[in-house]
């Protein structure tokens, strides 16, 4: 758990520093540093859903190819 907390603090610090360097605004940098992890968490959820579909398609294609070879239809 400590590693997770230190990673979150590091992530917040990096986002804050980059946003502050780009804008010069403490308020904007703080807002971005808080909002970015929330948005990124939602994006990650959908990223995982897409990859689950890709993996499922790969598995089905692998099964179909294996079946074709067993039945003498493969090359």
Automatic annotation (TrEMBL):
Residues 1-52 form the DUF2061 domain. The lineage of its organism: Bacteria, Pseudomonadati, Pseudomonadota, Betaproteobacteria, Neisseriales. InterPro entries: DUF2061_membrane. This is DUF2061 domain-containing protein. Pfam families: DUF2061. It comes from Jeongeupia chitinilytica.
